[in-house]
Structures are given as structure tokens and as C-alpha cells.
Amino acid sequence: MVVILVKEVRVIGIKLEKFISENDDLPLLLFEAAVKQGTPMMDNDIIAITHTAVAKAEGLKIPLSQVNPTHKEKAIALLLRREYDPRVIALAVREAREIVRIDRGHLITSTYFGHVTANTGVDLSNVDGGNSAIILPRDPDEIAEKYRMRFKELGVTVAVIIMDSSGRPLRRGEVNIAIGVAGMSSIKDLRGKRDLYGRILKVKKIAVADEIAASAELVTGSCSEGIPAAIIRGVSFDPIDTPTGSLLVRDPQEDLFL
Questions:
Q1: Is the pTM for the entire model greater than 0.90?
Q2: Angle CA(168)–CA(169)–CA(170) in degrees, nearest 5?
Q3: Fewer beta carbons below 10 Å: N end or C end of the chain?
Q4: What does the pLDDT look like over 59-98, one tens digit per residue?
Q5: What does CATH list as the number for 8-59+137-251?
Q6: 5: pLDDT strictly greater than 70
């Protein structure tokens, strides 16, 4: 009998039974929830966590009642010609390193860690019903590394990805991407490897952390699922101690779309 080994990857959602609050020990909550649901974390797992969950735990939830837009921020909101709350646009402007473009009702900005996105990632979804917004962390790699070390204290050696949804040039719809990565390389460089026919690959570099983040959203969802994280099991990676999410950000001078 011939045995054929087929590679398998599992994506397991981690459901929480409580809302996340500021100063919660998020890695501990996820670790305990995974045990309770019968799918405990294991060494060499990858833990992908939504930025919404991270923002709540890290104190990045901003009550809109505390935001007073300036005249400039109100003017930008009017330029967008949409039903945007000027306070949300004010947060987007304040959290942006740069306003890249205002075009056809959209505000495109660059974050402090280099990610180009709409409204600097300021989001109202799954926060508290519209009274508050969440903002992106200034250094998501730093938080990913902090969580990786916390999981290690809890007894598991894992990689951590912080993920957020993002649009893509010339493609409809959004997908999850990795904005913070710790414990693994965010890019798998295949240059110099050979394909099935022996041809040497010259340009192939896979954004493996983005692929993992996108697969995680299949179980975390984006609506009322209450699943803020996922365990990805079966993806091989070389453990490293240096955060690598920043490697996914292309230098604007190299970009073909901006």
C-alpha cells in the first residue's frame, strides 16, 4: 500500500463569552477560552488576533463624546460627501502620519507604521454600538511581541499575528491582512528555489502572514460571531525573536499604485 502524505492546515476559532475591556489580559483570556472549548493551544501554533480585540484591551477605544473636530477636520468630512461622523474623520486625521488622498468620497491615509488604508483604520464595528471608535496601535509589532511573550509565560511557544481588514488595489472587497507579526517571518522568500521543472525562482516572495490572516477571518468573521482570534495549526515556520510585520510594508518609492 502506498501512503501519500497530504499537508493539512487547521483554522480553529476561539470564542469568548465576555466583552473585552481595557487592561484585560487578552492572551490569558484566549488561552483559557481555547482550553475550555476543547482546543488548547499547542507549541508551533500561530495565534491570529483581530485588531478590534487588541484595541479594546490596549486602551485604544475612544468615546466619540470626547472628540471635538477642528474646522479643518469638519471641512475634510464635508469633502467626503458621505454620512461620516466628523468625529470619526477627526480621529482618522489625528492618527494619520500622512493624508495620501481624498478622492471620490474616500479618505486614504498612511498610519504611523506605514500601512496605507481608508480612514487610518478607525472603526466603529463591534466596539459598543456606535458610541466609541477604535484606533490602530502605533506599533502593532510591539504588541504582537508582547502577546507572544505572554503566551510563552502561559506555557506555549507560538507565533502571533495581529490582523485588520483592508482593501486591495484594483480588487473589490476586503480581506484580513497582518499588521503586527511576532515569532515568525511575515514573508517566505522562495527566491533561489526550484519549481517542479527545475526552473529557479527569481522573484517569488510570499506574504505568508497576510495569507494566514485572511484564512483566520473565515472563522472569526466580521459581524456578530464573537470570535476575536483563531488558532492556525499546521503551517510550518522557523521561530524567530524579532517582530516582522513591518517587513510587509512596501516603501512608497517602490509602490506602483500610489
A1: yes
A2: 110
A3: N
A4: 999 999 999 999 999 999 988 877 789 999 999 999 999 9
A5: 3.30.1330.100
A6: no
User: For 99-140, what is each residue's pLDDT tens digit?
Assistant: 999 998 899 999 999 999 999 999 999 999 999 999 999 999
Q: How far is CA 173 from the centre of its chain?
A: 16
In angstroms, how far is CA 167 from the centroid of its own chain? 13
Q: How far from 149 is each of 24, 27, 141, 231, CA to CA, in Å?
A: 16, 10, 12, 16
Q: Is 181 in contact with 209 (CB distance < 8 Å)?
A: yes
For the chain, give every domain's residue range: 8-59+137-251, 61-136
φ/ψ of 119, rounded to 5, equals 55, 25
Query: What span, in angstroms and rounded, lies between the C-alpha atoms of 121 and 184?
Result: 24
* Band of residue 257 on the pLDDT scale cut at 50, 70, 90: confident
